[in-house]
Amino acid sequence: MNVLVVGGAGYIGSHVAQALIAAGHDVLVFDNLSSGLRDNLLPGTTFIHGDIMDTESLRRVFTGDGATRSARPVEAIIHLAAFKAAGESMVSPEKYARNNIAGTINILNEATRADVHRIVFSSSAAVYGEPEYLPVNESHPQHPENFYGFTKLEIERILHWYDSLRSLRFAALRYFNAAGYDPSGTIRGLEQNPANLLPVVMEVAAGIRSELQIFGDDYETDDGTGVRDYVHVTDLADAHVRALDWIDTNDSSLTINLGSESGLSVLEILETAREITGKPVPARVVDRRPGDPAKLVASSELARKTLGWTARHSDARTLVETSWAVYSRLK
């Protein structure tokens, strides 16, 4: 298929584009480069600089000519162009409502106008909120605790309506904690202003930050620090390709978790990073953050059964080694 990857110059988007190319698809990247990087654009992709808030720009991707569209009609969309900082979403909800909700509606409207009927949507485990049981499966109650999670859940609800009313088949992929880098070393663009644990640890190891802040060490976990489910970005990318194939083959929609099903604590990540990088990686315990659960681990049984997907690169060593291969250049 000819696949439009919205946000395809970003951290996850570039890995998804790589997986699509490897699977034989044509890839058209649409990105405003607010967080994506030209360095992440892969040979064999067509790049269009544009913004999802600009409906005319989006429309030209589907119906324009020249450099504003591909030689073939767009046949499917993978949408990853969302703001994702949970903390920021609580102080700037307008920013997240505009981009994550209104911007996605623009994509859906232009897609259905152009008779495109397949979309893979980057959702999030943030739709669940505080876990009521573990592991978290797709039937878990959905009570987002931040506005970012609300925007993801709201788009999932809208997608169900577009499926029913406009025959737009979707796969909503609820990521847990994306981490790691392309094991082949092809994609090397650094995340801009990262807030997640592993890239912050890498920045401390590389000397960009002075220390790691550990938000609480008195949780009811084995070592007292929070436990999260980290899934390698290459595994996530593989799931996007499988999900796209599934909705195309089955002419149906799908909502699934993507996680490794095994939790790693902050200290486990930190000690693995110290071992692999050979750096001291200074760390300091500070107060807990409001709303942080002690443990959050996915059930990916549905992804296994439906897509034949498993997280093959999501162990602690691979996550850290592939990240350090990129960040070590900054030493």
Task: Please give a structural write-up.
The chain is of the alpha/beta class and 331 residues long. It has two domains: 2-179 and 231-258, Rossmann fold; 197-229 and 261-330, Alpha-Beta Complex (UDP-galactose 4-epimerase, domain 1). Helix content is 38%, strand content 18%. It contains ten helices and 13 strands. It has helices spanning 11-22, 55-63, 86-91, 93-113, 147-166, 197-205, 233-250, 266-277, 301-307, 316-327; strands at residues 2-6, 26-31, 45-49, 76-79, 118-124, 169-175, 177-179, 212-215, 227-232, 254-258, 263-265, 283-286, 295-296. The strands form three sheets. A seven-stranded parallel β-sheet has the order 3-2-1-4-5-6-10, with helices on both faces. Strands 7, 9, 11 and 13 form a four-stranded mixed β-sheet that branches. Strands 8-12 form a two-stranded parallel ribbon. β5 (118-124), α5 (147-166) and β6 form a beta-alpha-beta unit. α2 (55-63) packs parallel to α4 (93-113), α4 (93-113) runs parallel beside α5 and α8 packs across α10 (316-327). The longest helix has 21 residues, at 93-113. It is globular. The termini are far apart. The mean pLDDT is 95.
